[in-house]
Amino acid sequence: MARGRKTGGKDFAPCNSGRPRGSRSPALVALDAIGHERAEELIRTTVNAALGGDMRAAEILLRRVWPERKGRPVSFELPSMQTAADLGRAIASVTRAVAEGELTPDEAQSVASVLELQRRAIETAELERRIAVLEGMKSG
Question: How confident is the model at residue 107 (pLDDT cuts 50, 70, 90)?
Fold first, then answer.
């Protein structure tokens, strides 16, 4: 079958359902109508079930009003990063924190991502400064 061609002979661009962009399927429109009509009743029923000891209902409600945290705040010694060359010391601190059990490997990956962002920001500022100096030399 040719790319972008559906069975039955109708031509569609790849990843095109045939509906105008931004339109919603009739099934979703119908589900939304049902939800809007009965939402208050469903919420009240779920709250009553949770208050009556239904832990699944309580979990559903709590996940909506109090979402789970993605990660936790971490605290450990990290050297200052003033230049891109300081990244090595900072990464060594992260590695040490993992080795000593202060950080999980996932937390270390998150911290390393933040350090990389900081390194790129420092590098960008340094490049901007160098370009300004070169432009100043050229015009002066």
Answer: very high
